[in-house]
Structures are given as structure tokens and as C-alpha cells.
Amino acid sequence: MTTKDYLEKDYYAILGVKKDATPAEIKKAFRKLARENHPDQHPGDKQAEKRFKEASEAHDVLSDPDKRKEYDSARAMFGSGFRFPGTGGRTGGAQANFNLDDLFGQFSGAGGTAGGGLGSFFDFFGGGAERTSRSRGPRRGHDLEGEATVSFRDAAEGVTVSLPLTSDAACPTCHGTSFKQGTSPKTCPQCQGSGTVSRQSGGFAVSEPCSTCRGRGLVGEDCPDCAGTGRAKSTQTVQVRLPAGVSDGQRIRVKGKGGAGAGGGAAGDLYVVVHVRPHRLFGRSGDNLTLTVPVTFAEATLGAEIEVPTLAGGTVKLRVPAGTPNGRTFRVRGKGIQKKDGVTDLMVTVEVQVPHHLSAEAKAALEQFASLSHEPDPRAALKAGV
């Protein structure tokens, strides 16, 4: 499908649907036309074959949201009655001899996106003036990214870290003007101070940065320290506050701490990727803290009140009910992470410890326990399954 076809053909009319037709209506219309004009139903009928191909082409474009958006944008820009020179039509009332496919192709090469000629084309002509204005007006600084490694406790409680950053800033010699101090830059004779020049590409006038002044609008002797770029490397140390409860791998945005803007533009943002060192006792489950606590066989069987440590220091008492199985988790409310919206919980999982060595008396007592407990075979279900 050529660009010429893309703009000349009214796919909505071909399918017989309105411009605001839903995807379901488009699909229904295509199926109807496909059944009526399928080559198998009309052997040798060139007109039916042509209608079938046109319907398939229209369906291919209108059923794809991205293709449909570009198609609608093209029709809105050039008008539904657009005809290319050489096909008996006019563009804007004036004849022109050019190949728009070649022009569109320029925007899918360097500086464009492969296969994205129309999108790049609309971006260029729809926003060209705006970009030209921005190139000489205020420009926002670049976003920067850094990394911080903190302890588990600092991540849970919140901490302020110092990050050394290297970024672009205004050249200290020329103060961002890009010209040598003591010289007097003059208006560029090529672009007359606009920073852009126009060149003809077929029937279109394409604006691009002036090669003489490099888009600055002025010409003069370049600053020797920044080679006329107006920028220099700047190293600074930034203090960043990490909130309580920050997790490993989380990306924190610090507004206005990125690269300096140009021409009075705002500074960019700083993004900090946080790495949290593991704790030897505590872990995380979402915003809650986790802890595994060993208990004896007797404590799990008979029940007990045990003390468990907290991340903030000290201990809390936890009641373990009689008959607690291995791996059961208890919630200790309010002993997790102190956050802005409240305190999270501590999730305690008990791990029953089985004794490795027993005295003769303890072994005898345990054997007596086994004979008196009359517990059912815990593997009965497994045997039944086999």
C-alpha cells in the first residue's frame, strides 16, 4: 500500500460505515462485503475481485487502532478530496510535481522510526514550529538517575542519603552563551537570526536548524572551554530523603534535582534506584515486616508465651496456642514499619524445633506419650491415594 493509496482512498465509504463506526461495525461490514465479493463465489469477475481487495485493504487499516488513527490524521490534514499530481487533482489549488512517498520516506530513516513515516511526518509538520521555538527558548534540563544502597533498618525507618552527581550545566566561562568572552556575536546572515532555514522537498518547505549558526541565530567566536556548546560538566552532591518503607528496587523521583535547564528552563528530575541490604533476622512482605521464630516441640504442643524481637528494638510477647503446627504465622499489630499513613504489622512465623538428642528419661517419656496419645496415622490419606 503506497502513501498515495493511503490518502486517496475513502476506506469508510468502501466498507459503507460511518467515520465513528465501532470496531464491531467495521468487522461486520467487512464480512458482509467479503462474502458477497469473494473470488470463489464469482470466478473470473474482475470487478468482484477488485471490491474484495479494496474491502480487505480497508479492513486492514480501520481494524488496527494505530493505523486508523494515522489514516484519520492524514485525511484531516489533506482533506478527504485530496488527489496527487498526475491523477487529475490539485493540492491546495496549485499543481506540484513530487513524490510524497519519497518525502514520507525521509522521516522513516535517520532521526525517524523505522516504518513510522506518517507518524514522523505529522510530528514534524504538526510540531515543527513549536520545536523551533523551543530550540531557542527555555529548555527543560535532562532527567538524571542515580543509585543508593541502604541498610534494611534505614529503608524501613527512612533515611537521608548523599548522592554525588555529574550532569550538564551552563559553561562557567561563557555562562551558557556559547561565545568567547569579550566578543560581540552578530546576527546570522544565513537565517537572519531565526536559527532555522527552509529547504524545498518536493512541494513542501521543510524547516531545519541553520548550519551556519547551528540553530543559535547568532555567529561569533566560540567559547574555547565548551567548544561553542554552552554546556559543561558539573559535579555536585545532592541530599535525597528516602521515605520510610522504601523497598528494594524502588525508583524514587526527586523533582528539580536533575540537569540544569537552558535559557531559563526548569531543571530536570532525579530518579534514585534504591538497593536494600538484607537483614539477618527480618524480611519484608509488602509493607509488613516478617520474622521466623523457633519454638520447642513442647511449646508448640502445650502452648506457651514467648518473647520475639522487634526491628525498633526491645521485644514483644506472643501467645502460642496449644497444638500450633509448624509454619503457622501470627500477626503482631503495630510492630512493623512506621509510615505516613500508619504503622504496619510484624508477621511472626513459628518454626518447631525437633530435638536431635534425648536422654534416656526423655526418650522413655516420649515413648509413653506416643502410646497414650492414640493419634491417628498421619499418612493414612497418602496410603489410600496410592
Brief summary:
This protein has about 375 residues and is α+β, with helices and mostly antiparallel strands.
List keywords for this structure.
11 helices, alpha+beta, 26% strand, Helix Hairpins, flat, HSP40/DNAj peptide-binding domain, three-stranded mixed β-sheet, four-stranded mixed β-sheet, 386 residues
Account of the protein in words:
The chain is α+β, with helices and mostly antiparallel strands and about 375 residues long. Among the domains are: about 5-95, Helix Hairpins (Orthogonal Bundle), CATH 1.10.287.110; about 140-170 and about 235-280, Urease metallochaperone UreE, N-terminal domain (HSP40/DNAj peptide-binding domain); about 280-375, HSP40/DNAj peptide-binding domain (Sandwich). Helices cover about 30% and strands about 25% of the residues. It contains eleven helices and 17 strands. Helix 3 (about 25-35) runs antiparallel to helix 4 (about 45-60). It has helices spanning about 5-10, 10-15, 25-35, 45-60, 65-80, 100-105, 115-135, 150-155, 295-300, 360-375, 380-385; strands at about 145-150, 160-170, 185, 195-200, 205-210, 220, 230-240, 250-255, 270-275, 280-285, 290-295, 305-310, 315-320, 330, 340, 340-345, 345-355. Strand 4 and strand 5 form a beta hairpin.
Blueprint of the fold:
Layout: H1 3-8, H2 11-15, H3 23-37, H4 46-62, H5 65-78, H6 100-106, H7 117-136, E1 144-150, H8 152-157, E2 159-170, E3 186-187, E4 196-201, E5 204-209, E6 218-219, E7 231-242, E8 251-254, E9 270-276, E10 282-285, E11 288-296, H9 297-302, E12 304-309, E13 315-320, E14 329-332, E15 338-339, E16 342-343, E17 346-353, H10 360-373, H11 380-385
Parallel strand pairs: 1-9, 11-17
Antiparallel strand pairs: 2-7, 3-6, 4-5, 8-9, 10-11, 12-13, 14-17, 15-16
